[in-house]
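Notes to self after the Tuesday call (sharing in case useful).
The group wants a holo model before anyone commits to mutagenesis around the pocket. I volunteered. Ligand is pyridoxal-5'-phosphate. Logging inputs and output together so the record is complete.
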Amino acid sequence: MIKFLDLQKINLKHQKEIENALLATFRSGWYLLGDKVKFFEQQLASYCKVPHAIGVSNGLDALRLIFRAYIELGFMAPGDEVIVPANTYIASILAITDNKLVPVLVEPDLETYNIDLNKIEGKITPKTKAILLVHLYGSIVFSEEIKVLADQYNLKIIEDNAQAIGAVWNNSLSGSLGDAAGFSFYPGKNLGAIGDAGAVTCQDDDLAACIRTLANYGSQKKYINQYQGYNSRLDEIQAAVLSIKLRYLDEENNRRKEIAHRYITEITNTKIVLPHYKIQENSHVYHLFVIRTENRDALQKYLELNGIQTLIHYPIPPHQQQAYSDMNELHMPITEKIHNEVLSLPISPVMTEDEVSTVIHILNNF
Ligand SMILES: *Cc1c(COP(=O)(O)O)cnc(C)c1O
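Result:
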């Protein structure tokens, strides 16, 4: 069987290094807010070329903390609006509503699956305070015009960079394009920990300090609490593993791009819509390789019968979830079409050429 993602194989590639780091961390007796986290934060900031990186517990918290910090700093208040793509993963929306901010859903572009940049300005109201740009499937969504628009309306640009670490836009890394960015190191992400982990990157000193404080009980000095904060810290163990894996990230992303290139050039079945990569050469790191077809469920079944595991990202859009019953009436035809037709093929840095060939061959015979 060709697995959708072989996490064991991905991590065993670095077995010796990771096991040594785990053992050293265990033996050090220091498990939180120590050297390993500090080192990883510096490494991540320098990789993304940003002034600040703050390790946190997971990707959802990274995004929640960014909004909460903007509220604490007086830039936003509950009831304000945040523009966000309608077809994103639920976490993007949760980070907004958890702060009592209002998500304003915008339809994606059917070719890139990212927010349709042309539809943003029409959604801006006096209450709009931010645009959450989700680099979905690993593909950067950005433009100079959107920066101008944000300046014009005094909006923050926040990146949901859970899926696109290492992607490049005009020589800038994802996570450095806006005011702040949330990263997820969930094990299946391109930079995956061995448990939950996340980070925030940002440009502004005050924002960074506020996020760091909020993530540690709202406290900068032990037992002195400035905010009603959270406990959302990155573990030393996860930081040690991530520091190792970050060194291999570009190499692993390049392997993903090679596989994507083969899929794009060799899948010739006209019933299948391949991902569009018109944007910029290195702006997609193929966290997911998502195809689209009207017979999605039949195709998934056929692939399964032929030993190929696939997943759907995502089967139900946020506005149709029970959790957001107040949005269930919204009509989002492009989003709904995407959710009905997408299918994610196996892609990972450890997939072999033979496995890629098999997937292509079987798809072309559908
Ligand atoms: C994975 C993911 C998150 C959340 O990250 P966790 O670490 O799982 O909390 C947020 N947004 C997007 C787009 C994601 O894919």
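Two things stood out.
Residues 197 and 236 are 10 Å apart (CA to CA).
The chain has two domains: 7-106+113-246, 249-364.
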